[in-house]
Amino acid sequence: MTGTPASQWPLWEVFVRARNGLHHAHVGSVHAVDAEMAVENARDVYTRRGEGVSVWVVPSAQIVASDPADKDELFDPALDKVYRHPTFYEIPDGVGNI
Amino acid sequence: MASATSERSDLLKVADGCLVLSHRLSEWMSKAPTMEEDVALGNIALDLLGQARGLLQHFAAALDTDEDQLAYFREPQEFRNPLLCELPNGDFAHTIVRQLFADAWLHNVWHDWLSADDATVRGVAEKAVKENAYHLRHSSSWLVRLGDGTDESRRRTLAAVDALWPYRGEVATAGWYDVIEPVLVEATLPLPPRDAWTQRSSADGWHTEHLGYLLAEMQSLARAHPGASW
Questions:
Q1: A31, B36 contact by CB (below 8 A)
Q2: Among A17, B89, B91, B171, which has the highest number of CB atoms less than 10 A from its own CB?
């Protein structure tokens, strides 16, 4: 490789919608100098086997993540609260999938 | 309406052009400037290979042979690809300029062939039009980035346009210039004259010295193991 290494290009997170009606799901990341190139690179790297009908790219620096050190206080309290799951009533047949 | 003979020679020109250019792009595998670009060039190479196969199968059927015979057992003098397609990759700017010139050529070919009399040719064109639209977007956007980029990228892109402009003769129609010129303008590159000298064509089997080496590599496996399948 010559010139500026790709590792110095900004990183973008890639989200692909597999079919109409589904939500975009995170699939990975690409390097690109701007949004246009990021969309093209995401298309080339993540949809070459028919995986998607739509692509989103987001600058990785714009993603705000929870701190892994806070895992206990953020997520563990939800583990023993079964009453938060919608499993205590019957769903009428006519409702279908929810 | 073109004669049946010239339609068939056009068919071989496009089929061989796609095949040879596909091989050239495949030479970038594992050494493109970035991993993402490595995959992009590989995708384009495979699209071109698919287009070449569609036409070669059709061409071979009329000769009672098959696509592999045409791809792997013809000599350089029997290939009819535009010289542009067989030229070496050079640096990345050189590859992108060659690709833009070829994409613009195929853009016009596929759109023309959407209304071809031959249903098979029409079918190949219908699939290829969409693939080519993306190829053209890829090569155009890179040309603009390189031409209007750093001093170094601009110097290399200018050198590539200079080197490849004389090879436009076989592919440059009015429609070709209509595609190429706005991209060069957006890339802030000077427009070379339309009436500048160009190389002769490969229509009589005349090629650059590069095609023989390309075919030697591309054909070696099939010739070492005739009839092998994998």
A1: yes
A2: B171
A16 and B CB contact within 8 Å? no
Q: How far apart are CA B167 and CA B101, in angstroms?
A: 9
Partners of residue A45 in chain B, C-beta under 8 Å: 35-36, 39
Check CB contact of A34 with chain B, cutoff 8 Å.
no
What confidence score (pLDDT) does residue A1 get?
43
List pLDDT tens digits, range A8-62: 899 999 999 998 888 999 999 999 999 999 999 999 999 989 899 999 999 999 9
Residue-level pLDDT at B5: 59
Q: How far apart are the first and last CA of chain B?
A: 42
pLDDT along chain B (230 residues), means of 10: 63 97 98 94 97 97 94 96 98 98 98 95 97 97 97 98 97 96 98 94 90 97 88
> Are B36 and A1 in contact (CB < 8 Å)?
no
Interchain pair B34, A40: CB under 8 A? no
Tell me what ipTM this predicted complex has.
0.80
Record the pTM: 0.88
Under 8 Å between Cβ of B182 and B141: no
- A40 to B40: CB separation less than 8 angstroms, yes or no: yes
Collapse the DSSP code of B179 into the 3-class scheme (helix H, G, I; strand E, B; otherwise coil) and give the result: helix
